[in-house]
Amino acid sequence: MDIRIAAYAVVTDEDGRMLLPRLTAEFNNRWTLPGGGTDPGEDPNDAVVREVFEESGYEVTVDELLGIDNMVIPGEKRLKRSDRYGVPMQSLRIIYRAHITGGELTPEADGSTDDVAWFAPEEIDRLDRVELIDTARRWAGLLN
User: Can you tell me which residues the record assigns to a coiled coil (predicted)?
Assistant: First the structure.
């Protein structure tokens, strides 16, 4: 079994909107949290800051750890183009709350996401999104 450690951020603005990037077509064009996999030896706190910048153009500071989500992906559900297709993968997803300290909204170029936007809670409910968004919203006190 493979293991992947990733770090994600819940970033909201003064109007209660949440920052969400959209995964590319390879990942079914679903909306997700800003963040992603840690590099070997990289601190997850540093990884989330790097990933948020790559996917949104914003510089952030981490405020707090909200929780760690665990998911096992069966081997046949992994990307078929992966050289690890068929091998199960445990995904540990570390969720932080963070706030913007600089930068400008800019979609990622040539990465795993192709758009980024701010969404009000009622808009998020209508999005085609990964389930991690709702987990993070609960942990952040943004869902009842």
Answer: none
